[in-house]
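Comment thread on ticket #2218

A.B. wrote:
> Attaching the input chain for the structure job we discussed in standup.
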Amino acid sequence: EAAASQADFGASLLPGALPVPRAPHGSAWDGKAPLVLTGPRAGWAPREWGWGWFGERHGDEPVLCKQRAPIFDEDRGDSTLIAECSLREYMRYAEEMETAPEELPLLYMNGWDLFESHPCLWDASIDQIPGSITNLSTAAYVAMHKRFRLSGDSLEYATGKVRQLCKVFIGCRGAITRMHTDNHRAHAWLSQLHGHKLYVAAPPGEGRRIHPRRPGGGGRLPRLDPLDASQRAAPQHAGVELWATVLSPGETIVLPEGWWHYAASLSPTVTLMCNFWDQSNVRAVEDIFTEQAARALDEQR
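C.D. wrote:
> Ran it. Output below, let me know if you need it in another format.
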């Protein structure tokens, strides 16, 4: 009952939004729609990586903070603020933004490659959710390494590639991840390590309402901000199907390939994100290698 009420709370923040279904970690995900996994995630090291852990262990490390995330092609040349600071300085900023004037710029520390900087933190369980997903990313990269006869150890190569698929996001209250879809037909899971975050998702077919084309051609209209009621009511966005939920610490949302998603921090937050492929979309890894090989041949001509 508590899980159902929290799901309804997340959907209630967006009138007309559908609640994201919930089930305990270890419940099977069907790969067709978002699912929130709740309860203990046994044997998973990041469950202990909260706000204090990051500040104490990695506070002196340099990080980039952005006013917009992700940064899209249409943002290039724009005056998007990007700042470099230490992780400790950003975390202090995030705490102070709880009471700061609203006119101050919101900066978001998104996409930190923690496992590239600290491969010692990685183990083979990090990107897995046993019983819920069948993550074939490592196996796919091993197979492609052998097929394309790349140098070095196949498993070491694959592990390096999979580490790059897992990133840390740390945000102040109000930090936003704008509506987007993930690259290379990948699924994604996002686990909340600290704080509360609102997630909004939409099926792949809703792209025509989320990022519609301009009438008569000539590019696209701005992407939908689902928290803006006036935008949701605008003719180009009207009728868009949205799903919404709020994640608490220890919870994970799993998103299928092609689904649009958006996130807003309701408090200072730490999130661990991982892209992955399973049996339904693992051919996308082969496509990545084929595209890279084609580009390499073009460059040699």
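A.B. wrote:
> Thanks. Noting for the ticket: The mean pLDDT is 93.
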